[in-house]
Amino acid sequence: MASTGSPVASTQPALPSGPSVFKTVPYAFILPEILCGTWVWILVAATTVFYPLLQGWVMYVSVSSCLISLLLLISYLFGFHNNSENWKVLDSLYHGATAILYMSAAVLQANATIRSELGPHSPLYYHLNCAASFFAFITTFLYILHAFSIYYQ
């Protein structure tokens, strides 16, 4: 067969770079993931942590996920991916694994919230823990949406 000299057109869309990251699904979920995750650790840190084993895991997952997601967002904004398909796999694996970790953290935070209902600083810390549980489940949902929406681009 003779070569026609024309490049083969890729059926995969290009990965976004720059401000288009905020307009493209699933990459537009990264900023809400960071913001909701930040609220989780701010709200947990605002309470007196009575259950360090439970809420320590929540803090670890939320802080590390925020930092890694921030690095991922920066790499997309500056185009470090060079439009490589490996970035889609990395992105999907990261967000899938983080969704699982965040689900465990959300359940542990809900447990800490239930336990804090009758605690020493009941109304204030209970409400802060409720808000942290809410944002933990919202963040979990965002990570799940991000992980699965990569396949439907």
Account of the protein in words:
This protein has 153 residues and is mainly alpha-helical. It has one domain (27-152). It has helices at residues 30-45, 52-77, 85-116, 122-149. Helix 1 (30-45) packs antiparallel against helix 2 and helix 2 runs antiparallel to helix 3 (85-116). The two termini are 33 Å apart.
Strand content: under 5%
Category by helix and strand content: mainly alpha
Radius of gyration: 19 Å
The secondary-structure element order is HHHH
Number of domains: 1
State the share of residues found in helices, binned by percent: 55-70%
Q: Give the tally of β-strands.
A: 0
Largest sheet: none
Transmembrane segments: 27-51, 57-80, 92-112, 124-145
Organism: Centropus bengalensis
Domain MARVEL: 21-153
Subcellular location: Membrane
Helices and strands in order:
Layout: H1 30-45, H2 52-77, H3 85-116, H4 122-149
Helix pairs in contact: 1-2, 1-4, 2-3, 3-4
Summarize this structure briefly.
The protein is mostly helical and 153 residues long. It is built from four helices and no strands.
Core attributes:
153 residues, mainly alpha, elongated
